[in-house]
Design goal:
With 359 residues, the chain is α/β, with parallel strands linked by helices. The strands form three sheets. Strands 3, 5, 6, 10, 11, 18 and 19 form a seven-stranded mixed β-sheet that branches. The chain folds into two domains: 210 residues, Medium-chain alcohol dehydrogenases, catalytic domain (Quinone Oxidoreductase, Chain A, domain 1); 128 residues, Rossmann fold, CATH 3.40.50.720. It has ten helices and 19 strands.
Length: 359
């Protein structure tokens, strides 16, 4: 079928709306009609650091199964699904050792399914959800309950999975521990929710925007710091009686803030890097004190979740009120609005903008 899609033709260019050709799914693949797709900072960053171009953008999405391949058994047409952009192979050393979250061979489709100008098109993170239809590997379509809004379900596929997962699956926050979150966008706010669900004792949110800090408090932050007005390190030191925090999450992707996060750590504390820094960025620190205080720096991708288990679980948590997502979806747009948004993303505020595909 011929369908519209948002294409990044080359690094540094503004993505544009083009017509692409989508082929049917193979035996181990699923065709999904996309209902909604969030615009994530990773989509914006791809304009500068995509590994291959041209590429169809988008990875945070949800929709309805239209067709399944001959060997697909876990879903069927009509199911509501969240797009899982990390389909695991199940065969690599990490998967076989029980660490599927560290899969060494993330799966794509068996052959190219999207074509532009009669040539195979790269697909962002095995998803390409800035298009009304996608073909994904079987494990790339995770069924969820049908009574959840698909606009909200789209957020599960990255912002929620990464943020809540970072708190619960990557860092394993324990009841009573102190947590600092640097950056309160879509992912950071979900780290705060994850910390609340983990029964953290103190949750300190840091940002430069008062409206985001107000939402952080609503979602579970016990303390907020506007770093334009106050020294965040001094404030964290005071709030923790000089001990520092057991967990610091850096969401922005700036080495300067990572260094600041290190200085906020308690003895034995962990700095979790969630924000995507530039590929050439470097983080420097003093190793002697870091070693003496027995601290940890760790990376986090997709919240180290088990998608087939956690994405339906997060949907349940939203429906029973434990996860709050309504305030995170601040704008809905059409697909043809996206190039203008990506051309000047700093002009488009809010927490999460979601593309909706309506007939």
């Amino acid at each position: 079928m011929n369908i519209p899609g948002i294409i990044l033709a080359g690094l540094g260019q503004v993505p544009r709306l083009e017509t692409v050709t989508l082929q049917p799914p193979g035996p181990d693949e699923v065709l999904v009609r996309v209902a909604a797709s969030g615009i994530c900072h990773t989509d914006i960053g791809y304009m500068q650091y995509a590994r291959a171009c041209p590429v169809i953008l988008g990875h945070e999405g949800a929709g309805v199964v239209e067709q399944v391949g001959a060997r697909v058994t876990h879903t069927q047409p009509g199911d509501h699904v969240v797009i899982n952009w990390q389909p695991k192979c199940g065969r690599c050393r990490r998967c076989l050792a029980g660490r599927r979250d560290l899969c060494e061979n993330i799966q794509g489709t068996a052959a190219p399914r999207v074509f532009w100008r009669d040539e195979p098109l790269n697909v962002m993170l095995n998803a390409g959800t800035f298009s009304p239809y996608v073909v994904v590997p079987a494990e790339g379509a995770v069924p969820i309950r049908r009574d959840m809004s698909l606009e909200k379900a789209a957020l599960l596929g990255c912002a929620v999975a990464t943020g809540v997962g970072a708190a619960l699956r990557t860092s394993h926050i324990q009841p009573g521990e102190t947590v600092v979150v640097i950056g309160t966008g879509g992912v950071g706010l979900n780290v705060i929710q994850g910390a609340r669900l983990a029964l953290a004792g103190r949750i300190i949110a840091i940002d430069i925007a008062d409206e985001r800090l107000a939402l952080a408090r609503k979602l579970g932050a016990t303390d907020v710091i506007n770093s334009r007005e106050l020294d965040p390190l001094a404030q964290v030191t005071t709030l923790t009686d000089g001990r520092g925090a057991e967990h610091v999450f850096e969401i922005v992707g700036q080495p300067r803030l990572m260094q600041q996060g290190l200085a906020m750590l308690a003895r034995g504390g962990t700095l979790t890097l969630v924000g995507a820094a530039g590929r050439e960025d470097e983080l420097t620190f003093l190793p002697r004190g870091f070693m003496s205080r027995q601290q940890v720096i760790q990376g986090c991708i997709f919240g180290n979740i088990q998608p087939e288990i956690d994405l339906p679980l997060f949907a349940d948590w939203y429906m029973d009120g434990r996860l709050q997502l309504d305030d995170l979806l601040t704008h809905t747009v059409r697909l043809d609005d996206v190039p203008a948004i990506l051309a000047e993303p700093q002009q488009h505020g809010g927490i999460r903008t979601v593309i909706t595909f309506k007939d």
